[in-house]
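Form 7-S
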Amino acid sequence: MWVALTQPFDGGAVATALLVCVVALVHLLPETLPISSGVSRRSLLSLAGGISTVYAFLHLFPELETRRGALETTEPALGSTLVQHGYALVFLGLALFYGLERVATISRSHEFDHELGSLADEPVFWIHVSSFAVYNAFIGYVLVAGETGTESTALFAVAMAFHLLGNDEAMSQHHRESYQRLGRWVLAAAVFVGAAVGVVYALSDVAFTALLGLLTGGVVFNAIKDELPRTEKSRFWAFAAGSGVYAVVLLAL
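Output:
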């Protein structure tokens, strides 16, 4: 269930399928924008950061709050702890992706001046890609089986498409040729896999809530990690425009 975000699903399987395709194919976009577009990639990434961050605070956090009751169905002691500290799942997601970022950064610093070897010899690459594959698969699952209405599914899809654009940039910087050759295809396919699972299988409320908490923490961390630490490379006006406009859209609908 995804009751806090929308109205009951009223049809539109084709539209949902198209949204799944849009979100998945973000990973396959060219590395550079056409010069004629007049928009730098850095500005686009700052815009994406604003959109995904405001979506997390205005929709994902409230959704988690409404779903805390689902955690009470778990083992009594564990359920009580999770209900009282529900946002610990968000922190766990943030900490997990921070750890992955640090491992990837350290690995890259050691290999920066060397040609990348065989993909099979890059455990950090595979750990990083596998973690984001699960992340992407859950996004695909929510698009299909989150019981969102057409309008709210579109809002979620837009926010996640922009968010994955930022993730794609970070993965390209960390893993370069390996990511371009294989990693981006794995992440794009993961969205489709998650969507396919959503067609035939429904997660329990507890599992959905736990994964939603981890996703929320990941969205917050991955959305802002390139905006706050390196302000000389970010574009505040684009970040503010993205967050401001999308906040108005979210609050108006």
